[in-house]
Amino acid sequence: MDINNTTILITGCSSGIGLETALHLHKKGYRVFSSARKQEDVIKLQKLGLISFLLDVTKAQTITDTLNEILSLTDGKLDVVFNNAGFGQPGAIEDISTDILKEQFETNIFGLHEVTLQVLKIMKRQGYGTIIQHSSVLGIISLKLRGAYNASKYAIEGLTDTLRLELKDTNINVTLLNTGPVTSDFRKNAIQKTLDNVDMENSRFKKAYHKSMEANKSAVPFNLEAIEVAKIVEKIIQSKRVSPRYYITKATYILGFLKRILSTSKLDFILNKL
Length: 274
Fold this sequence. Notes:
This protein has one domain: 3-Layer(aba) Sandwich (Rossmann fold), CATH 3.40.50.720. The longest helix is centred in the middle third of the chain and has 29 residues, at 98-126. It has helices at residues 16-28, 39-47, 60-73, 98-126, 147-166, 186-197, 206-216, 226-238, 250-261, 264-271; strands spanning 7-10, 31-36, 51-54, 80-83, 129-134, 172-179, 245-248. The radius of gyration is 19 Å and the shape is globular. By secondary structure, it is of the alpha/beta class. Helix 1 links the parallel strand 1 (7-10) and strand 2. The chain has a seven-stranded parallel beta sheet with strand order 3-2-1-4-5-6-7, sandwiched between helices. The relative contact order is 0.14.
């Protein structure tokens, strides 16, 4: 593989995994096209030496505009897309309004789907490509007070597994990242989403919310740095045989294993302790 000619679009590069992956691959010599939904973040990325575009996955035209600009710079080709943009909306199912659930899906699933649809047109035309979808350990198992996020990640799993089957007769790879706890602004942003959208003080889960928020501010078991995800993305890009999914962090391996071997009731017993 000619690294210098391998082109990669990454969504959600304002911080954390997206930013670290963009910087890592850029340093390795890949042609990285980073993106963010806020102009100030685009400027920040450009100051870091990255080519960056304004791309809000909930606004289809910004996806189209970004892809057109990238294709104008690459003689019409795009090798890899990392669908990384997303956020977590905490809250018990009964405390999350339908509008808030829709907001979660607008970014995590509908936005990801729109990027995928537009990218597929390019990759089918050129005859190859790799699409990396950012799922989660919470696309494998569910945790309390994470219903909206759990549902969005399960949806990514379903869409991606189906797409992989439908693209079997092509040279387009589709894979999933099942990340566990990784250092980023994700938990900080999730706390703010709780404060903005959940009436904690009048919920029967009040104590659980406060306990969860304090836990999010402290050390998290099995936490990895974002660079470890970036290394997996690089591995996928270099691989001749891309696996259907990649587990990242010990938490994902442990919980994924328990999901396979335990009955639902026994797994529920363990998950209720987390």
